[in-house]
Amino acid sequence: MRTHATFRIGLAVAAGAIIAGCANGSESPATSSSSTPTSAPPPSAAPSSVPAPSSPATESTTAPAGEPPTGKPLPTITLTDKPPKEPTDQQPSTGWVAGMVTRGGKGPCYGLIADDGQRYALYSTAGTEMTQGDRVKVQLETTPIRIYCGPGTLMAMTGYERIK
């Protein structure tokens, strides 16, 4: 069993080395290392009057520190002077909402379609009995509980009045 793990680790290292070599350019690592003579001086020791041909490996190292090798600047976060006065995330409306019960019962989950067309999944542990098809007015609050009470925006029902 131990030899299988050692074999797999060796295979992963070899695959990583091949992939890393292929990511640097179109040459394979075997051809790029064998085509470079060992007696040639490194590119930094080349005479300054003759520019050395650029290779993919030297392009990435010669790019400025703040720019990627493609020459395009990196995206940055824009800072604002003051925080926004209004919430930037759309929060469901709280307060009293009138509508029709789409899923009733004794709770804790109910369904409601408001008069404006918004669908709500209501949660209440008060044990209120609601009948499907009734017109009601309910008081809604956002809830920290994340449970599934059916389709719609999950809200906590804190008040209930039946509309006659």
UniProtKB/TrEMBL annotation:
Coiled-coil ranges per UniProt = none
The positions making up the signal sequence are 1-25
This protein's superkingdom? Answer: Bacteria
- Return the Low complexity bias intervals: 23-38, 46-65
Which controlled-vocabulary keywords does the entry list?
Answer: Signal
Where are the annotated segments for Disordered?
A: 23-97
Is Signal among the key words of this record? yes
Q: What is this protein called?
A: Lipoprotein
Source species of the chain? Actinoplanes subglobosus
